[in-house]
Specification:
Length: 154
């Protein structure tokens, strides 16, 4: 899965393969509702990149809970946890959006959430932090943490 290039993170989109029918779909970083496959209408994983200028549109003003990955390109654990986060986003398609923020580029977002180590993972519901975790973990552990956090914040 490769992010397409755009003028900003907000205008970018990713091509996501539908887990149900296999069709490739372009999923925008910012949209109303939940992305669905154009062919079979199954929910698609919603994975987006954001920066200081697009974070609120991509992660705060969203109709579903958001898992925020605050990472840096030089960070080995960040690179290691990225596939696990995408796996969680695929498993929770239609129920969760994954937003990735490079804190080296997006320093304001890092300051806003007082990031002191990367990776830092946040769960946002209606723009409010309902879960916080520092460090990498397996896809299974991350999914359990997200599910528990969402259930506890409902």
């Amino acid at each position: 899965m490769t992010a397409t290039t755009g003028a900003t993170a907000m205008s970018s989109s990713r091509v996501i393969r539908c887990e149900t029918c296999g069709k490739s779909n372009r999923v925008p970083a910012v949209a109303v509702g939940v992305p669905r496959c154009g062919q079979c209408h199954s929910p698609l994983p919603w994975i987006a990149d954001a920066d200081d200028s697009t974070f609120d549109a991509a992660a705060v003003h969203v109709s579903v809970p958001v898992l925020v990955d605050l990472w840096a390109p030089w960070c080995g654990p960040c690179r290691a946890v990225s596939p696990a986060l995408e796996q969680v986003a695929r498993r929770l398609a239609g129920r969760l959006k994954l937003v990735k923020v490079d804190v080296d580029v997006s320093r304001e977002v890092g300051r806003r959430f007082q990031v002191q180590a990367v990776p830092t993972l946040l769960v946002l519901r209606e723009g409010h932090v309902v879960g916080h975790q520092a460090g990498a973990a397996s896809a299974q552990a991350l999914e359990a943490w997200v599910e528990h956090t969402l259930a506890a914040s409902h």
